[in-house]
Amino acid sequence: MARLLEERGIPVYDTDSRAKALYDTDEELREAMIALCGAGIYAPSGSLDRKALASLIFADRSLLGQVNALVHPAVRRDFVAWREGLSTEGKRLCALESALLLDAGLDAYTDGVLAILADDTLRLQRAMARDGASEEAIRARMQHQMPQEELAQRADFLIYNDEAHPLPPQLDSLFDKLLD
Fold first, then answer.
1. Three-state SS sequence of 142-170
2. 3-state class (DSSP) for residue 35
3. Residues 8, 171 contacting (CB under 8 angstroms)
4. What's the short name of a Pfam family annotated to this entry (predicted)?
5. pLDDT, position 60
6. pLDDT value at position 8?
7. Of the four, 10, 39, 114, 120, which is 20 to 30 A from 173 by CA?
8. Pairwise CA distance, residues 22 & 157, whole Å
9. Cα(110)–Cα(180) distance, rounded to whole angstroms?
C-alpha cells in the first residue's frame, strides 16, 4: 500500500523502519533503553543489538510492553517533526503506515484511519511468503494484532485487499473523496 500511495505523490511515514532507526539515533530513547535493559543492549558500534534485545524479550515477555512504552513516544515525536516538515513544504496529505496505529495511540496524530483488510487465510499466506516465516510464527504474530472486525469498526475508511477488490481503484476513489 505504501508504494501505491507514494506513486500518487503521497509521502508515507513507515513506523517500522523509523522505529528501527530511532533506537540508534534518538538520544532520549537510547538512554531509556540502556536504563531499562543495561548498556549491553547496544553494540560497541553504538547501534542497538537487536539479537540481545530479542533474547531479553523472549526471556521476559513483560519487557516487550516496557520497550514499546519507550519506543512509541519516540516514534510519535519523530512523526510530528516529519509531518511539520511536510506542512512547511505545503504538503496537504501524508500517510502514517503502522500495524499498531490504534494500539500505539498514533491515530490521535491523524485526521483519519484507513484500514486495509483481508481475510486471515490470505493474510497468513502473504506474510509467510513475504517474511519467509513459518505458519506458526505468523499465527503467533497475528494473535497479538487487533482482530480485523475491530479494526474495521474503528477505522474511518476501509479498503479490501483481495482478488475481488483491486487496490488501485479503491485508492483512487478514496483520494477523490479526501481531496474534494
1. HHCCCCHHHHHHHCCEEEECECCECHHHH
2. helix
3. yes
4. CoaE
5. 85
6. 85
7. 120
8. 29
9. 18
* Local structure of 104: helix, strand or coil: coil
Work out the pLDDT band at 58, boundaries 50, 70, 90.
Answer: confident
For residue 83, what are the domain limits? 14-93
CB 70 within 8 A of CB 32: yes
Q: Which three cell numbers stand for residue 46?
A: 553504538
Residue 163: per-residue pLDDT: 85
Mean pLDDT of the 4-23 span: 92
Q: Can you tell me which residue has the cell 483491486?
A: 166
What is the count of structural domains for the chain?
1
Burial 19-36 (b: 16+ CB within 10 A, else e): beebbeebeebbebbeee
Strand pairing partners for 114? 157
Question: Between vectors from CA 16 to CA 150 and to CA 160, what angle results, nearest 5°?
Answer: 40
Model confidence over 14-26: pLDDT tens digits? 998 999 999 999 9
- The C-alpha cell that represents 9 in the structure block: 505523490
Instruction: Tell me what pLDDT residue 27 has.
Output: 94
Q: Give the three-class secondary structure for 101.
A: coil
Contact 127, 141 (CB under 8 A): yes
Q: Is residue 7 part of a domain?
A: no
pLDDT in tens, 86-137: 999 998 889 999 887 887 888 898 989 999 898 889 989 988 998 888 888 8
